[in-house]
Amino acid sequence: MVPDPQFPPVAGLGRRILGLAIDWALASAISAGFFGYDEMATLGIFALMTWIMVATLSATVGHVIAGLAIRTPGRGPAGPVRALVRTVLLCLVIPAVVWGKDGRGLHDIAAGTVVTRIR
Length: 119
Hints:
The longest helix has 23 residues, at 13-35. The protein starts with 12 loop residues before the first helix and ends with a strand. Helix content is 60%, strand content 7%. It is globular and about 45 Å long. By secondary structure, the chain is mostly helical.
């Protein structure tokens, strides 16, 4: 893995998977409560929750629990446009499981973001 000096260090895969699992479990619980668990409703809830939280707080509930945040080259917040690009590509799955040489997923590369440890 070759670090990109433009970005903060990439968080470890274990923490990123933990954050994703927590977010998916939360979306699944909300879906089950309102829709009797519907896969498309879960995906929609996950996407909306991820987009809003990354755009406004730079982290989802799962990210906060895992000690992660989404950052940009200047270590600033992602903002709504980058968060939307990242979320759409994350929901397509393939960009999230294909990584660049710096360890960032293609969804983060396309959005110009990086998942980094904050604690």
